[in-house]
Design a protein that fits this description.
The chain is of the alpha/beta class and 334 residues long. It has 13 helices and 12 strands. The N and C termini lie far apart (43 Å).
Length: 334
């Protein structure tokens, strides 16, 4: 079994961004400051030399759109980190329209193993209304180049952008599966203070993407990626002090958003399995180890709703070593 990689984040907030997307304030989202080059050298030295493999991840902005000299300085600073452990690696994130053959060749020279693309949507009208400055065709082209180069591809998508709908988000997820990424991140839209989207929301030009709506859509998206055997690396923004303190003024921000989605996934699976069960039955649901709370739901919401919907006497949740996540077994007792 390959050891799990530890992620070492280095933030280059808003650097290289060629467009001001309506939803973005990277400085508030990342909470980053200081010299990224110094961070690379310090973090790589402190965390890259033990037996656990580590991945140095450049977050924030669009890495391949910052000045080439700065890119090279950052990557040069990371070379000692790669030499500390032969399993160490580097990951960068960028825009789909900031990738070409020469860029990929240079990234491979410096030992980049993974490229994350901020695709956000595969619907051109949504991309346009969000001021992304690229098209779905740019996503397809960049993804193909990355995959053909032998590098790992991570795709990022957002739900609830201006002009987006449930159907468009599910369409984006299905299109992502055709691009065969090695993983995906799903970020429901959050209205961050000071962004253009914040102004749109205040003017009534944008209706917020609520947590409840985002959870339902992301549960369906989870099923699409799960069926395609594509790992979901994260759902929902990473909690930060500023977002928790009020910079997330509206939208689908919740510090445990991923937990809410997986709880909904379990509810959907249990609901399907219980169709046709006789009223007043006593049910035992068996879930993988460590997933009992996800099945039960916050404040026992899942259990209470299932008991009500199917007129059950009781539902008990226990755990077992399945070896497969998000699976449920049902035992019925009269």
């Amino acid at each position: 079994m390959t050891p799990k990689r530890r992620i070492i984040p280095v933030f280059v907030p808003h650097a290289g961004c060629t467009h001001d997307c309506v939803f973005c304030d990277q400085r508030r989202i990342s909470g980053a400051s200081g010299s990224a080059i110094d961070d690379v050298a310090l973090l790589g030295h402190n965390f890259g030399s033990d037996t656990q493999p580590s991945e140095l991840a450049f977050y924030g902005g669009s890495f391949t759109a910052i000045p080439i000299g700065l890119q090279n300085d950052l990557l040069e600073a990371a070379q000692p980190f790669l030499k500390l452990n032969h399993l160490n690696s580097i990951r960068i994130s960028t825009r789909p329209d900031c990738i070409d053959a020469s860029i990929i060749d240079r990234l491979r020279y410096y030992g980049i193993a993974t490229i994350e693309l901020g695709a956000q949507s595969m619907c051109d009208d949504v991309l346009d209304k969000s001021r992304r400055g690229h098209t779905s065709g740019d996503v397809e082209r960049a993804a193909a180049m990355i995959k053909n180069s032998g590098l790992a591809l991570i795709l990022q998508m957002m739900t609830g952008l201006p002009g987006d709908t449930r159907e468009k988000s599910l369409y984006t997820a299905r299109r992502f599966t055709e691009l065969k990424p090695d993983g995906v991140r799903v970020y429901p839209t959050v209205v961050v203070r000071g962004t253009y989207l914040h102004a749109m929301w205040e003017r009534g030009e944008y209706r917020e993407h609520t947590v409840e709506c985002a959870v339902e859509i992301c549960a369906e998206i989870h099923a699409i990626f799960n069926d395609a055997a594509i790992p979901i690396i994260r759902m929902g923004l990473n909690p930060t002090r500023t977002l928790d303190a009020g910079d997330a003024v509206a939208g689908a921000y919740h510090p445990a958003f991923g937990e809410l989605v997986y709880s909904r996934v379990y509810y959907n699976k249990a609901e399907a399995l219980l169709e046709g069960v006789a009223p007043d039955s006593n049910i035992t649901l068996v879930v993988p180890c460590g997933h009992v709370s996800m099945m039960i739901g916050q404040h026992r919401r899942n259990i209470n709703e299932l008991v009500r919907k199917f007129s059950l006497c009781s539902i008990k949740v226990i755990q077992a070593d399945f070896g497969t996540e998000n699976q449920i077994r049902v035992a019925i007792h009269r």
